[in-house]
Amino acid sequence: MNPPEEYINNNSGELVKQGSHQLTSNGISEVNNLDKVRDILFGSQSREFEKRFVRLEERLLKEFSNVRDETRKRLDALESYVKQEIDSLAERLKNEQVERDHKVTLLTEEHNNITISLEKKIAQVDEQNTHSQRELREQILNQSKSLQDDIQHKYEEILALLEREAQELRRNKADRSNLAALFTDLAIRLSTENKSEF
């Protein structure tokens, strides 16, 4: 910045204050004179400042427009990206839900199949148990009948044996009685013969 410009910039406020003071004290004619003086002193610089302000404003507007366009582009790109991500996430969640539902269906079917299989196994075991119990009862009954028949047969055999033994004893008893009678008769005879000899 040039020294005159610096002086003008530093003292412009003072000059404005002085002009305001003169306006209040001297009237409208002095205002016109002040405008002329101001135009003489600051006219070229003021026009230069206006041009600079215009260029700066244009540049700012252009930069603002560029920033706004760039921001809009970025926001549009961000919105598109976020929308794609949301759509992708929604699709993935949908696929996961479908897969989860499918797995739940498979597990339910497997559970039902296992339940049916277990029920069949339990029914088979119950049937086998019932059949085994029936066979066991039949075997016990048959063995009981067979044992009863064996006992009856042994009983009959024992009775027959006892009967034979009894008959044998009776026969032996009869033989002993005959033998005793025979010995008695023999003794009587011997006794009689001995008496006759003496």
Walk me through what this model shows.
The protein is mostly helical and 198 residues long. It has two helices and no strands. Helix 1 crosses helix 2 (28-197).
Overall, the morphology is rod-shaped
Task: Specify Rg, calculated over alpha carbons.
Answer: 74 Å
Q: How much beta, percentage-wise?
A: under 5%
| Uncertain residue ranges | 1-9, 11-25
Biggest pleated-sheet summary = none
What is the string of SSEs from the N terminus onward?
HH
Please describe the topology of this protein.
Blueprint: H1 3-26, H2 28-197
Output the keywords.
mainly alpha, rod-shaped, 0% strand
What would you say about this model in short?
This protein is mostly helical and 198 residues long.
